[in-house]
Each structure stands twice: as C-alpha cells, then as structure tokens.
Design goal:
Helix content: 25-40%
Strand content: 15-25%
Number of domains: 2
Number of strands: 14
Mean pLDDT: 77
Distance between the termini: 44 Å
CATH superfamily of the largest domain: Transposase IS200-like
Number of helices: 8
Shape: globular
CATH class of the largest domain: Alpha Beta
Low-confidence stretches: none
Order of helices and strands: HEHEEEEHEHEHHHHEEEEEEE
Structural class: alpha+beta
Largest sheet: 5 strands, antiparallel
Length: 341
C-alpha cells in the first residue's frame, strides 16, 4: 500500500496529505459503525502507549489461564502525528506529520490492511477495498492552515470540531494558534474556491472561443442576440400555426372505429427503482442536498423509512426525485435500494 511519491521522501518532520478511495469509486464507509471503526483504528495507532504493568489482565487461551497484556495493535505514537482528517462514504483524507522517517509507510500499510480485513469480513466480500496504493502529496508548513480549511466541512466525519475547540482529542494535533475565527476562515476559503472555479470556467470558455476565432459577447450583445432569436422563433411558430389551420380546413379527419380503439395496446409504465432511507446512527433525519456534495445547500430532510424514486447515482450519493418533481441528493450511507413500484 505504499504511495510512490512517499518512498523517496523518507524524511523527518514533513507533512503529507494522504488519501485514497474505494476501488471503482465504490463506498468504503457504508454506515456509522464503519466510520467509528476506522477512527478507532486511528486512535489505537496514535494514542500514547498503555502502561503494560498497569494493564496486565488474567485471560484464557485454549483453556489455559494467563496473566499479562493481551495482543495490542502496533503503536505509532511520537512517530506519526495526525493533523487533520476528513472521511466521505467513498474516500478518506489524512494530513500527517512524519516525525520519524518511513513511519507513515508502515502506519498506512497497517491501517489500510486492518480496515480492509474488517470491511471484507463484515460485508462478506473478497479482494481489494481501495483503488490501488494510497496517494500522497507533501505540504509545506506555511500551507498547512490553508490545507486544513480546504479539507474541513461542517458535515461528515472530520477533525473540524477539534479545530473549532468543540472537542478535545489527545491523538489529534491541530496546527492552529487559536480556534477563534477558524470557522470564518473555512467559510472564506470555500467562497474563494467557488469563485476560482467560476473564473476557471470562464477562462476555458474564452480559450475555446479564441480557438474558433470568435470573441466573447458582451452582456449587451448577448441580450440583443437572445431577443433576436426569440422573435425569429416566434415568427416561425406563427407560420406553423397558420399552415396547420389551413391544412386542417382542407383535409377531413378519418374517424377511428371503437373496435380499433379497443384493440389498441395501452402503454404501461415500466417499474421505476426506488430508494429507502435507512438511519442507523440515532439521528432523527438526514439532509437532502441540492448537489451531490456535503458543501451543497440543504433543500430538505428525510426520515427513516422514507421512500423516493431513484434518478441517478454519483460517487457516494444517490439522486432522488422529490415530491415537487425536483431532484435532490442523499448520502449513500443512509440509503437502501428498494423494490420497484
């Protein structure tokens, strides 16, 4: 599970963004228990090691009694620091500090193998869970705060509460001087990111027009063009209506007998797949979003047992048809595929 660009960076006190997704973009966290297990593994690996003398227990193995410490998972305390994390149904993202060289390599191999074994056993599957080796990119310390802002979100499983000062976790090491103002910083970064994406789209459009030898239209030119197109379509529509009226006045329709009507085959709607909301983590409802992203606006809520017509599938999201005919999206961790109507 070694990332290629990490193997050549066996240095100490360097920061990395480590991430991976499910094979063929499949879901790797199906319910709240899966998230808790993965986070629990992080805690086991990164917490301060237990005092073996204090934690000695009496336990039985193959009918014989022993006194000592049961098998403990590997520990990377003081070798790897977790700066931040963010989990989605089909991806995980970690920001790690490698305090001892090559520690991240061993840490990630153990973490991914252990979680894959748990997942395969729980869901009775075989084979790889992740899409090949994990990916990594080095982060300079000056860009660390900016990167955590990019990573964090109000929704989902993440270290965001630690950065806001709402939760204190010993094995997470937030790299901020103060929690005050961090939320505003995240919102500001998200807004700037959307603005950059919009500008990038406009630049692509300009480049495309330039390749065609065209110039972008001004807003006034766009208005005149749209108005002209409207009147042309209106004129053509009126002509079609006149032609239709003239045709109907000269040609008599042929009556259809009741026998023909009775013998005609009535169209039947094919059954449409539906999805059922399934809540297992104790919350009252789940959010319905405008787009398949936790950053997207919330447009409604769904309760356990609610059923919707399935429209589409995205990475970790299901598109559903709402009662008003519009489309919304629900995270796949709260969805079961139901029987067609």
């Amino acid at each position: 599970m070694l990332a290629k660009d990490l193997s050549s960076k066996s240095k100490e006190n360097v920061y990395f963004h480590i991430h991976n997704n499910g094979i063929e973009d499949k879901i790797i966290f199906k319910d709240s228990k899966d998230y808790e297990i993965f986070i629990g593994y992080l805690r086991d690996y990164l917490s301060s090691p237990l005092d073996l003398q204090i934690n000695k227990k009496v336990f039985k193995v193959k009918g014989r009694m022993y006194k000592g410490v049961p098998h403990l998972p590997k520990n990377y305390f003081d070798k790897v620091e977790l700066i931040a994390y963010y989990l989605t149904p089909s991806e995980f993202h970690l920001i790690l500090n490698q305090t001892i060289k090559k520690s991240i390599e061993n840490f990630m191999r153990s973490l991914c193998t252990r979680y894959s074994m748990y997942f395969n056993k729980k869901y009775q599957r075989k084979g790889s869970l992740f899409a090949g080796p994990y990916k990594s990119s080095q982060i300079t310390e000056s860009k660390l705060l900016e990167f955590t802002c990019k990573l964090h979100s109000k929704d989902g499983y993440s270290s965001y509460p630690e950065y806001l000062g709402l939760r204190e976790t010993a094995w997470i090491k937030p790299k901020i001087t103060s929690a005050g103002g961090y939320e505003e910083l995240v919102e500001k970064y998200k807004a700037n990111e959307e603005k950059v994406e919009s500008n990038d789209q406009k630049q692509l459009e300009r480049r495309y027009l330039k390749r065609l030898g065209l110039k972008p239209l001004s807003r006034l030119a766009e208005l005149f063009t749209a108005t002209g197109v409207f009147f042309v379509l209106l004129f053509l529509g009126i002509r079609n209506i006149d032609a239709s009226v003239h045709k109907n006045s000269t040609v008599s329709p042929t009556p259809i007998s009741s026998q023909v009507l009775s013998e005609s085959v009535k169209p039947t709607d094919s059954p449409k797949p539906r999805v059922i909301v399934k809540i297992t983590d104790g919350v009252m409802s789940v959010n319905i979003r405008q787009k398949p992203s936790i950053q997207s606006d919330k447009i409604g809520e769904a309760r356990d047992g609610d059923s919707f017509e399935l429209i589409s599938e995205h990475k970790g999201w299901f598109g559903i048809k709402l009662t008003d005919g519009s489309t919304g999206f629900i995270s796949a961790i709260y969805i079961d595929i139901g029987e067609p109507n």
